[in-house]
User: What shape does this take?
Amino acid sequence: MCRLVGALAGTPFPLRRYLLEDHGLLALSLRGAKAPHRDGVGWAYRDARGRMRLHRWGGGALAGNDGLPGDPSPETTLLIVHARKASSEYRAMRGAIHAHPLVRDGVFLAHNGTVRDTSSLGDGNGTDSQRILDWLAGAWHPRTPDRLVEALRELLGLIHDYTALNLLLTDGSSLYAFCCHTRDPDYYTLHRRGGDGAVVVASEPVDGRAGWEPMPNGTLLAVGPDGEARAYDVGRGGAPGLG
Assistant: This one.
């Protein structure tokens, strides 16, 4: 159970906009739904030279109420942030190595939910989120939206015991958000907002602006480098689509 935010914009914005301001990551971690979320925190962003940067901290980083670790001053056009609340199965895994976003083979992933049957993905170690990333990084080739839709449908044909498979993904160029849950829609539904030259996806609306709308369950939102957003019906539990 976690809180997450992803944003892609045509012009740079400061990290602090989605970390510290309004209802950003700090507020979600301390006062968001099913708070507190203090078992790890991190963000991945694209710097001014087009390189992805990743910063993660373990369970002690959000012990206080007065700020986040790290430097919120850089600007970016692509950002994924995550505050973790470890599920009971993984309470012992709260170090920085288990904080999100996770990265494998150039794919950055933040996950909300618990998947209990990751053994169906083959041999591997780590949390359910790490196992999912390992599988997706291998299956998602080429790194196109259409292939990601196919890979997610294959993944949903392998796993069946999960609360949510809510994902934020980036390959450093595009932003992807997958909303998929089997329970508690009030908590697990992702929300999106466009306009002002940016597309933002969050587990809860992160500012007071109008235009936030829930993502349908089983939907993948793909935001390309040009900022154009397209929604795909992936389905749930291996279903061929939502209609």
User: Anything to note?
Assistant: Residues 2-233 form a domain with the Glutamine Phosphoribosylpyrophosphate, subunit 1, domain 1 fold (CATH 3.60.20.10). Residues 237-243 have pLDDT under 50 and may be disordered.
